[in-house]
Amino acid sequence: VKRKSLENERCTVARGLDVVGDWWTLLIVRDALAGVTRFNDFQRSLGAAKNILSSRLKSLVEQGLFEIRPAKDGGPYQEYVLTEKGKALVPVLVALSQWSSDYVFSRREIPSAPVDRRKRRPLNRISLRASDGRRLRNEDVEFLSGLHRPE
Amino acid sequence: VKRKSLENERCTVARGLDVVGDWWTLLIVRDALAGVTRFNDFQRSLGAAKNILSSRLKSLVEQGLFEIRPAKDGGPYQEYVLTEKGKALVPVLVALSQWSSDYVFSRREIPSAPVDRRKRRPLNRISLRASDGRRLRNEDVEFLSGLHRPE
Question: How far is the alpha carbon of A146 from chain B, nearest alpha carbon, in Å?
Answer without folding.
Answer: 4
